[in-house]
Amino acid sequence: MDAQLPDVEAGKRFYGELFGWAYEDAYGTSVWARKDGEPVAALAHKTDGRMPTVWTVHFSTPDVRALLRRVEQAGGQAVRAPLRDGDLGVAALAADPEGAVFGLWQPGTYPGFGTRGTPGTFAWVQLYARDTAAANAFYGALFHEALFGAGAEPEFGRAAVADVFPAEMPPHFLVHFRVGDCAAATGTVQRLGGRVQAGPFDASYGTVAVVSDNQGASFALLER
After folding, report:
1. pTM over 0.85
2. Could you write out the three-class secondary structure of 178-203?
3. CA distance linking residue 55 with residue 102, whole number of Å
4. 3-class SS of residue 26
5. Where are the alpha helices (DSSP H) in the chain?
6. Residue 150's pLDDT is what?
7. Which intervals hold domain VOC (predicted)?
8. Structural domains of the chain, count
9. How far are the Cα atoms of 45, 90, 153, 181 from residue 5, in angstroms, in the given order?
10. Residue 95 φ/ψ, nearest 5 degrees
11. How far apart are CA 25 and CA 165, in angstroms?
12. Cβ 33 vs Cβ 39: under 8 Å
């Protein structure tokens, strides 16, 4: 997953203090975030001011182009065509039929998360949709084995937008980072100039708070 930010240096300070991340130069002004030496995310400079400041989750696939065709055949659309990032891998952006944007990643030498599910790392992604039955059909067909196959560890959920947000909120993915104390972490977010949008509240997968950083990128904190 990565965050597209107007100011990467400010992002480094915010997430470094919140999650204890260290950083390594990646490409251009982008950086990889590391927790205990393992890659957990990337922070990238947002080059187009018209684009939103967001966190984007990328789903791994052995063939980006083939999966993008399946997205389009199922009623979704390509947002950004596949782009090779040296020998690291191939990335693309897609949107589901309701417009929720997600990434696709065909690994090369960079497989993705080095660690997850521990404090300061990825723990869950929640899709907020308007038509949850349609979302079940769309993503179930695309990612059935990855999401529901034998031995798969649940890391993906979906809910109705109105369960947490105003009904007019567009459908979207919300990445969750694991924390030891959700209430304390929301206090840190506010001290660093971020904002609490909702919660903490109890969800089926833990205690959640929806927050945004000091540049407006939304994410969630998850205690479980």
Report:
1. yes
2. ECCCHHHHHHHHHHCCCEEEEEEEEE
3. 10
4. coil
5. 8-19, 64-73, 132-148, 182-191
6. 45
7. 1-107
8. 1
9. 5, 21, 30, 26
10. -135, 145
11. 35
12. yes
Phi-psi region of 162 (alpha: psi -120 to 50; beta: other; left: phi over 0): alpha
pLDDT, one tens digit per residue, over 20-44 is 999 998 877 789 999 999 999 999 9
Strand 58-60 versus strand 101-107 pairing type: parallel
Cα–Cα distance measured from residue 128 to residue 155, given in angstroms and rounded to the nearest whole number:
14
| pLDDT score of 154 | 62
CA 217 vs CA 17, 61, 64, 91, 119: distances in Å = 16, 26, 26, 21, 19
Please tell me the predicted confidence (pLDDT) of residue 59. Answer: 93
By residue range, what is the domain housing residue 64?
A: 2-223
CATH at 168? 3.10.180.10
Kindly indicate the confidence band of residue 124, based on its pLDDT and cuts at 50, 70 and 90. Answer: very high
Structure tokens at 128: 């907020």
Q: Are 123 and 207 in contact (CB under 8 A)?
A: no
> Helix, strand, or coil here: 147?
helix
* CA–CA distance, 93 with 68 (Å, rounded to integer): 9
Eight-state DSSP code of residue 168: T
Q: Is residue 145 very low, low, confident or very high in pLDDT (cuts 50, 70, 90)?
A: low
